[in-house]
Every structure is written in structure tokens, then in C-alpha cells.
Amino acid sequence: MQETEKIWMNGELVDWADAKVHVGVHGLHYGSGVFEGIRCYETSKGPAIFRLRDHLQRLHDSARLLYMELPYSIDELRDACHELIGVNGLPECYLRPIAFYGYGQLGVAARENPVETVIMSWPWGSYLGDDGMANGIRAKISSWQRIGPNVIPHAAKATGVYLNSMLAVTEAIRAGYDEAILLTSEGTIADGSGENIFMVKNGTISTPALSTSILPGITRNTIIQIAQDLGYTVEETDLIRSDLYLADEVFMCGTAAEVTPLSSVDDYELGVGPVTLEIQKAYLGTVRGQSERWAQWLDHTATRTPAA
After folding, report:
1. Largest CA distance in the chain
2. What is residue 303's predicted lDDT score, i.e. its pLDDT?
3. Is the pTM above the cut of 0.90?
4. Average pLDDT, the chain
């Protein structure tokens, strides 16, 4: 991670090295936090944050599912994101808003613990690598199941939920793969460790339904709309692992991963297909302001040049 000048923390800009909390914070011990991943892209009209309000709304929704009341409104957090990008002088960056129960009582229940709210920004390239974006990555079906909808609210982008993802992707990497695919307890495809998944078969695009314990991805929603606009039929349906093995194309998507093809699943070779590349091109064009069709998704901001 490349350090930047400032971090927004509880309403103030603080130096990167000074953004600290006590080791007794509730969120560290129990994973009681919510977060977002948001990208700002350089466009011909200056830096633009992609679907910022949608991400901040999901942050508020996630907090509500954890009985957490954020001390800042969506508008206040939006202004903070713009302020942070400006002070750090980053025309293109990744934003990480996070809120968590802070220092106070250390029982499992968060009893009157304050809610700490932080936003970080730093330069971050392709999450799964430039080569992965172009030539695809190798994925493995994980032995770890996706947590069920009545275990933890899967609609919440909660910090503690990602232990499930960490175990899955670590297992995959240790086995020589790039990413993991998790199944539900019923054996259907859920998602990747930090991405939603799509497959292409005979020209139709399919993706697991939200009922399969997956996060309602903002990039997932974006891809569905872009694909339909390009003339493709998109089905939200149950998929099993053999569907992926026999697919014409498979790709993952997410704010960090953007649109990344899967070259293989469990060593079943797939390659990188034309539908995936068309959608990838349309998505990257959209986030970089090259499509007026989806211009409403861009929240333009301003930067300054940091002092020497």
C-alpha cells in the first residue's frame, strides 16, 4: 500500500502516520465494522468517483444491519471523500471508508461503544494484476462454504464477514491459484472472495441470484445494466460448478477487480472470450467517462498538487 498525505478520521484530516486507534477497540476484537471499496478514475473532465452515493448508501445499510448508527450522513461522507482526494492530490485512487465500534466496553455486545469513521485513499492498480485483466486468472472452487443468509447478513459489507473470504482465497493461493470461488451449503455457486461471478453460455450471461448469500455488488449491478444495454440477456439463476466448467466464458467483477476474466476453473481451461472483453471494455470506458449513457454514475471532484 502506498502511503498518502492525509486520512479523514472522525471529521478531521490527520497525517497518515497519526491515524491510530487503541488496541482495545471492539472492531478489532470482534470484527464489528462495515466498509466500502470505491474507485476514483481520471477522466477527460478531471477525477470522477464511480457510483459514490450508491457505495455510501450501502455503507449506511450495512451499518444498520449491524445495529450501528453512523455519525455522518451520506452527504457528509461524500464531501469528506471529495476533500480527501483533493488534499492528497490523487487524480486516480481507491477509497476505503470504514466504520467500526471503537474503544469502550469489550464484551461481545457493543454497549455504548463509539462508532469510529475513517476514509483512506491511495493509488491502487489492478487488484488481480494487469496480466489477469488481459489474459485471465486461474480460480479454484474452495473447500470453505459461503456463510448462509441466516448466519450473518450477507447484504452487509461487514469486516467480520471477510474472514470467510480470507480463508478461501488463502487456500486457493497456497494451492497455486489466483482466486477462490465459494459455494453455498446447497452446492450452488456463490461468489469469489471479493468479487461477484458471471458466466457466458451460448450468448446468454448468467450470474447467481442475490438469494445465494452474495453481497449485492454495485459493480455487479453495473455489469448487468451495461450487458443488457449491449443487447445481452442476463439471467440471475442458480449455477453449479459444472456449469462453470462447461461455460464458454467466465468472469469476475468488483470495484477492486473491475472486470477480470477467468482463464480456468479447477484446471478446466476456458480462455478469455469476446463477450467478456466487450463488457470489460464497456465498463472501463464507463468509469473513465467515455460513455454519456452512464454519465450519471460519475461524481466529479477536484485535486490539487501536493506541496513539494
Report:
1. 57
2. 63
3. yes
4. 94
User: Residues 72-98: pLDDT tens digits?
Assistant: 999 999 999 999 999 999 999 999 999
Fold match between domain 6-122 and domain 130-272: no
Strand pairing category for 189-192 and 179-183 = antiparallel
Instruction: Give the span between the Cα atoms of 279 and 176, in whole angstroms.
Output: 28
pLDDT tens column, 6-22: 999 999 999 999 999 99
Tell me the pLDDT tens digit for each residue of 116-167. Answer: 999 999 998 878 788 889 999 999 999 999 998 888 888 999 999 999 999 9
Residue 157 is a catalytic residue: yes
Mean pLDDT of 52-79: 97
Q: Which CATH number fits domain 6-122: 3.30.230.10, 2.40.110.10, 3.40.50.2300, 3.30.470.10?
A: 3.30.470.10
Question: Which residue out of 45, 157, 201, 281 is catalytically annotated?
Answer: 157
Q: What residue ranges do the domains of the chain occupy?
A: 6-122, 130-272
| Domain at 130-272: CATH code | 3.20.10.10
Name the percent of the chain lying above pLDDT 90: 89
